[in-house]
UniProtKB/TrEMBL annotation:
Domain Rhodanese, first and last residues per copy: 20-127
PROSITE patterns reported in the protein's UniProt record: RHODANESE_3
One Pfam family named in its UniProt record: Rhodanese
Name of this chain's protein: Rhodanese domain-containing protein
PANTHER family found in the cross-reference section: RHODANESE-LIKE DOMAIN-CONTAINING PROTEIN 15, CHLOROPLASTIC
């Protein structure tokens, strides 16, 4: 676990350990469309950005989700609770972690490699209907 960043940065192995063994919630901040294509088992989808008119695959056109912190707060009202945030490769997760910290969350950890790192390690992926 790296502590050079404002939030602890986790590897795939550390993330898997925390989610599977310790039950730390994994918040996937990708869009619902991306989440539906495959996600970490037991993860929750709370998008930090939403698809704009450009469609689901134009990540440069994503619009901030103004309800992101409110949605997380409904799921996890305890701002001291540990949570892991992740996206596809790290950029949106860093933004989500910053937003949660600004809202008073102190147990935020970032899975630096997101779904790209998870699948590269050959870890289990859950897909709806599969």
């Amino acid at each position: 676990m790296s502590s050079d960043a404002p939030h602890p940065i986790l590897s795939a192995a550390e993330t898997q350990q925390l989610v599977e063994k310790a039950g730390v919630p994994y918040i996937d901040v990708r869009t619902p469309h991306e989440f539906a294509e495959g996600h970490v088992p037991k993860s929750l989808n709370v998008p930090v950005a939403l698809e704009g008119a450009a469609g689901p695959h134009d990540h440069d056109k994503l619009e901030p989700n103004p309800a992101f912190v409110e949605e997380v707060r409904k799921l996890f009202p305890d701002t001291k609770a540990e949570v892991i945030v992740a996206c596809g490769a790290g950029r949106r997760a860093a933004r989500a972690a910053a937003l949660l910290s600004e809202a008073g969350y102190t147990g935020v950890k970032v899975f630096r490699d997101g779904m790209k790192g998870w699948t590269a390690e050959g870890l289990a992926v859950e897909k709806p209907g599969a």
